[in-house]
Amino acid sequence: MIRAxxxxxxxxxxLDRPEVLNAFNSAQFERLAAAMLEAQQDxxxxxxxxxxxxxxxxxxxxxxxxxxxxEELEFGFQxxxxxxxxxxxxxxxxxxxLGVGIGAxxxxxxxxxxxxxxxxxxxxxxxxxxxAEASSTYTFPRLMGSQAxxxxxxNAQWLDAEQCRASGLALEVFADEGFLQRVLAExxxxxxxxxxxLLATKALLLADHRDAMKTANRSENEALLRLRGAPAxxxxxxxxxxxxxxxxTAIQSKH
Length: 255
Known about the structure:
4-stranded mixed beta sheet, single chain, about 15% strand, 2-enoyl-CoA Hydratase, Chain A, domain 1, alpha/beta, 6-stranded mixed beta sheet
């Protein structure tokens, strides 16, 4: 579920599945895509802020889901990411808690990322026998530099809020108390400015990058399709469900 609230030109979208730490299933990607298109088409919306309900921003993909066939989805994961890439208005993230997987890679698609001081991010793809997603193989090197991005995307370790800010993945860190209000104040300042100027400036900022981001998104999805269900991914997901550490020893010996 996604809750939408509009006030003075700022549309707040809240990822609202706190019982699963706002993990994304296919329905949630459909909802986010539709919510972003609605915000894009709404003349009363100048700025969008995405945050999470409860103690998490998003715990990433919902591993408990049986994925529906792509033909049953209107947008799908790839379509949702393309909509975020093409979104013409300012997009801010208010990372209120932990962000894992898509909860981290969304940071590369926002114009500004703000984090609560207790928030932290992780890109667990290698540990799941998978690869990166959501154009992060393109956006993260731009934001963080190539080596820092490689470390983050390859080693599946956590970055705390201050490390994210220092690396360029987040713009600013605010105290947990009053965090969302601080981000909404930033958004309100933007929304008070002429929308025509915001649209033109964002278009110029992303003019040389949108096609590359979409290409990265497609290449990543192709790699994910190859790796999903392969031995390393099966062992990682099985270990997660059995609440044990994965054992990749036998798989590694085949390479």
